[in-house]
Every structure is written in C-alpha cells, then in structure tokens.
Amino acid sequence: MTFSVYSREREIRTLGHLIAMYCRKHHHTSSGLCDECRSLLEYSAGCVEKCPYGEGKGACSHCPIHCYENDRREQIRQVMRYAGPRILFRHPVEAFFHILMLRRNVQ
User: What is the pLDDT of residues 47-75, one digit of tens each?
Assistant: First the structure.
C-alpha cells in the first residue's frame, strides 16, 4: 500500500476548516457556515474535484491553470490569508499535510 500526501478528501476537509475559521471570525457565526462561505466551500470543492492534475496536483495558488473565477479567487485568498497561519494551532495534522502539498510542484 502506498501513501500519498495528497488526497482530494483531505484537501476539501482542510478547505472546510479554513473557511469555517474565517466565517466564525468575520461573519460571526457560532456554528456552521453563513450562506456566502457555504457557497465558497461548495465552489472550491467543485474545483478540487474537477482538477485535471488529479493526484499529482500541488497547491492551487501555484497552479498554471486557474480554475477559480477572479472574484472567488480573491475570496479564497482572503480566507487563506486569515486562516492559513491559524490552522496550525486548531488542526495541526491538516496543517502539516497542507504545508507538504504547498511544497509540491505541479507535474
């Protein structure tokens, strides 16, 4: 059995954690996501699922193909800017795998 740093399920789960942290702070939700953040998570999950690089993908921010629409890309940048450094303390295992994926080059 081989172990892969990347899995779509892990990436979507990490996105969910990041967006939830952002939503709690900026949209003051106590549980769950607001409609705007839920929409962003669904959109992002769809992009991850449709990624042409599949299991060989690296971070979306380093990808030569930009699947995200411009306004959604800016939204996810804001989420990452806020929640990226904080995920290390709330979800350290997810953060570890996310950092490994960031270091991976798209093939």
Answer: 999 988 877 777 787 788 888 999 999 99
Minimal CA–CA distance to 4: which of 107, 97, 102? Answer: 97
Q: What is the pTM of this model?
A: 0.86
Tens-place pLDDT, residues 15-43 = 999 999 999 999 998 888 999 999 999 99
Cα–Cα distance between 1 and 43 in angstroms, integer? Answer: 32
C-alpha distances in Å from residue 50, one per residue of 13, 24, 55, 94, 95 = 16, 28, 11, 22, 23
Residue in the block written with tokens 């962003």: 40
The sign one gets for the Cα dihedral 104, 63, 24, 6 is: negative
